[in-house]
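One such shown below:
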Amino acid sequence: MGKTLSEIAEELKECDKKVQLIYAFNGTGKTRLSREFKKLVQPSDAKDIETDSMARDTILYYNAFTEDLFYWDNDLEEDTDRKLIVQSNSFIDWIIFEQGQDQSIIEHFQHYTDNKLVPKFELPPIKDEKGETIGYENHVEAISFSYQRGNEDDYELVKISKGEESNFIWSIFYSLIENVVDILNVVEDRETDEFDKLKYIFIDDPVSSLDENHLIETAVDLGTLIKSSESDVKFILTTHNPLFYNVLHNEFNKAKKYFLKRLEDGTFELKEQSNDSPFSYHLTLLEELHHAIKVNEITKYHFNFLRNLLEKTSTFLGYKNWTSLLPEDSRKAYESRIINISSHSKYTTDEIAEANDQEKQMLKYLVELLEDTYKFNKEQ
C-alpha cells in the first residue's frame, strides 16, 4: 500500500541516520517531498526563504523553488544591460552582508563554469540632495555577469545560460552550507547563534545542469563537506541522476538509501536500497518500462527511459552512438521518432500525456528487441 508524500516526510523525519539519500525519476515528486518535509519540521511562525527571509531556524533547503528567487532583465530596448534580478527577499543580503560569502560564491561558480566569467553583485546607490552617489545600500538588487579580458577594455554584460544560472544559484547555497558546517562544528563561543536550532539540510537535485566530470566532482565535494559535519544536523539528498546517486552512495557507507516511486493510484513508495552497492540503473529503467507495458499505461516520458537505457547500454558496449542499437533496416526512422517524442516530454504537461497506440507498440517492440539481443540479466 502506497503512502502520501507527507507520510514519507514523516518517515524521513523519524530516521536517526546522519544522511538519507533518495533516488527518483524526474517528475516523481522530489521537490514536492522537500516542501512537505519543510512544512513538517519548520515551525509555522518561522521565516520562509520563498517570501521574506530565509528559513534558517530548523531547516535549510535547496530545490527548484530556490531558483524562483531570481529572474532575468534582458534589457529588450538596448540589449546591453542584462542582469539577473533578485526577487524581494533577504536571503542573498543575509549571505553576502551578514555572512560575507560573496567571494566564496564567486570562486565556486567560476570553478564549475569559467574562471573568466565574473559575477558582480549590484547594490542600489545612496544619493545626496544633488543626486550624486555617496554610497551604496547593503542590499543586492541584481547580479550582472561579464567576461574578464585582462585589460581596460569596456566589458560587455552577458546573459549566462540556464545551466550557468543554476550553477550560480547552487554556488550560493553550497557556500552557505560550508559556512554552516564550520560554525556548528564549534561547540562553544560560536561566532553566531543563527544556526543553533538548525536540524536539517535538504538538498534536491543540485546537478541538473552539470557535465559528467563536474557532476562527479560536486558529489565528492558535497560528500566530503557533509562528512566533515560534527554537529547533529541531518542531511537529506534527492536526485534523479543515477551517476550522482551512485557517487554519493559510495561516499556514505552508513547512510539510509532509498528509491522513491510514484504508484498508479497517485501514492508513493519509499523503497530501501541495499548498502552493499549502488543500484543497477538500467535494471530499474527496465522494471519501470516492463510495468508500463504490462498495465498499458505508457506515457511519452517512458521514451526518455528508453532513450536513456539505449544510451547507457551503447556506452557499456563501446558504441559511439545509442542509435547503433536500433534495427539497422529502420534505424533512421526509429531514431527520429524516439528523439521527437523524448525531447518533447520533458515538461509536466507532456510527460504525463499518454502515448498513442502506434507509439506504444514501438516502445514494446524496441524494449523486447533490446533485451533479447543483449541478454540483460533481469535479477537485481
